[in-house]
Amino acid sequence: MIVADYGGVMESLSTLVFKPESALPHTKDVIKNAIITAHHTLSTAEGRELVRENYRPDIAEYLLASNYREHLASGIVFLADFVSDEEAALGNQLFSLMQVSVEKKNIDLLIDFLQRIPEAHRDKVLQLHNRINEEGRALLAELTLTSQEQ
User: Fold this and answer.
1) Distance (Å, rounded) from C-alpha 148 to C-alpha 150?
2) CA distance linking residue 32 with residue 27, whole number of Å
3) Distances from the Cα of 61 to the Cαs of 53, 58, 71, 77, 99, in angstroms?
4) I need a labelling partner for 33 at 20 to 30 A (CA). Which of 3, 14, 109, 135 fits?
5) Which helix (H) or strand (E) holds 19?
């Protein structure tokens, strides 16, 4: 249920680059652990048999599909996109304004926009972006390592 709850939130916020952590239905750690557990369960013959025994055939087939484990791996990486509400608001505001400039193919507007953003804001969003990338890689590495150990 935890993974499904998280999937629903991800879907509802898919248009946001930076997602507010307050929107999560559970803590990041609880979601991370649920994804790791589900991924591990689906990685073993015993786990797959448990799924077949405990779920309706249509749900078991969905969970046992080869791409479901890939979705779990993507989900754990996207968990890094959930940041403090303040960071999400700032990042999304700057991204939205920048996107409008790019969509209008107006390089002068984009340059003007970038020059008007206080350097501290630009630096904060860049640091946030880098932190999200690092956290996503670390979460995926943890999922992979945990799956290999068990």
Assistant:
1) 6
2) 9
3) 11, 5, 15, 24, 40
4) 14
5) strand 19-20
The torsion angle over the Cα atoms of residues 65, 66, 70 and 71, rounded to 10 degrees, is -10
pLDDT tens, per residue, the chain with 150 residues:
899 999 999 999 998 989 999 999 999 999 999 999 999 999 899 999 999 999 999 999 999 987 898 999 999 999 999 999 999 998 888 777 767 666 666 667 667 766 766 776 777 878 888 888 899 899 999 888 876 655
On whether the CB atoms of residues 94 and 127 are closer than 8 A, the answer is: no
Do 18 and 86 contact (CB within 8 A), yes or no? no
For residue 127, the model assigns a pLDDT of: 86
Between CA 76 and CA 3 the distance in angstroms is 10
